[in-house]
């Protein structure tokens, strides 16, 4: 069974506590359960990871790229959090690892502060899911399966 890696970036471990008006009341555990259920329906294994550290996220993208090249993984669904707007390094890792990636945001970043309107990740992503709440994770997993199916 092929895998999908779901990567959550900084502060997503605070889901359910941090700005619930913006991000809702679901916790990261709830999101991970939702992702596993989506994977079960689609016949793919889902591996969820979260880190507040940019270098760790880069290492995971490199790992995913190796697994995609080996035929064991379809790609990555990633909510890069605030690194979306700051990290050229994540952009370069995605491009360098040649990993199919769906960028995901729980909130509609385009309806928020102007500094959130630019993404360094989007130009390297196969697609983007924005503003659909935590339900966007299942949609992103489905989209990744669809765009990587041959």
Automatic annotation (TrEMBL):
Catalytic activity from the UniProt record: 3-dehydroquinate = 3-dehydroshikimate + H2O
Question: Where is substrate annotated to bind?
Answer: 79, 85, 92, 106-107, 116
Q: Give the active-site positions.
A: 23, 105
The pathway where this protein functions is: Metabolic intermediate biosynthesis; chorismate biosynthesis; chorismate from D-erythrose 4-phosphate and phosphoenolpyruvate: step 3/7
Instruction: Please name the SUPFAM superfamilies in this protein's record.
Output: Type II 3-dehydroquinate dehydratase
- Enzyme class, spelled out: lyase
Q: Identify the EC number(s).
A: 4.2.1.10
- GO biological process, any: aromatic amino acid family biosynthetic process
Q: Does the keyword 4Fe-4S apply?
A: no
Q: Does the record bear Signal in its keywords?
A: no
One term of GO molecular function: 3-dehydroquinate dehydratase activity
Q: Which Gene3D superfamilies does the record associate with it?
A: Dehydroquinase, class II
Assigned keywords, A-Z = Amino-acid biosynthesis, Aromatic amino acid biosynthesis, Lyase
UniProt-annotated site: Transition state stabilizer, residues: 18
Q: What does this protein do?
A: Catalyzes a trans-dehydration via an enolate intermediate.
Q: How does it assemble?
A: Homododecamer.
Query: To which protein family does this belong?
Result: Belongs to the type-II 3-dehydroquinase family.
What name appears for this protein in its UniProt entry? 3-dehydroquinate dehydratase
Q: Which organism is it from?
A: Caballeronia sordidicola (Burkholderia sordidicola)
Which lineage is the organism of this entry classified under, starting from the top rank? Bacteria, Pseudomonadati, Pseudomonadota, Betaproteobacteria, Burkholderiales
């Amino acid at each position: 069974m092929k895998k999908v890696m779901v990567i959550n970036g900084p502060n997503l471990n605070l889901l359910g506590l941090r700005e619930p008006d913006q991000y809702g009341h679901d916790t990261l555990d709830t999101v991970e359960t939702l992702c596993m259920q989506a994977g079960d329906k689609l016949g793919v294994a889902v591996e969820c990871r979260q880190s507040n550290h940019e270098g760790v996220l880069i290492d995971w993208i490199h790992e995913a790229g190796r697994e995609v090249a080996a035929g064991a993984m379809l790609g990555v669904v990633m909510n890069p959090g605030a690194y979306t707007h700051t990290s050229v390094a994540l952009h370069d890792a995605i491009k360098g690892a040649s990993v199919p990636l769906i960028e995901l945001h729980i909130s509609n970043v385009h309806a928020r502060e102007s500094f959130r309107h630019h993404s360094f990740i989007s130009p390297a992503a196969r697609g983007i899911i924005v503003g659909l709440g935590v339900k966007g994770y299942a949609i992103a997993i489905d989209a990744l399966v669809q765009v990587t199916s041959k």
